[in-house]
Amino acid sequence: MWIPSVRERVRVQGDDDSFFIVNVDHSRRLVKMIPVTGASPVIEDVPFEFLELERDFAIRKQGEAAAD
Length: 68
Fold this sequence. Notes:
The protein is an all-beta fold. The protein has strands spanning 9-12, 18-25, 30-35, 43-47, 51-53. It has a single domain, classed as Roll (SH3 type barrels).
């Protein structure tokens, strides 16, 4: 199971907007995040299970090429 980390770019399931995680509460399994556009305030208490890592922006392992 994927566990979100600070500075990861994510989406909420069923939504096209992108967010950056700014805080992770592991004990409560919640994150605090901000929109990539910076147009809205901080969004708090989003459960891990509602998040999807935005794969196009995921940090790649050394030597791993981007898929075109």
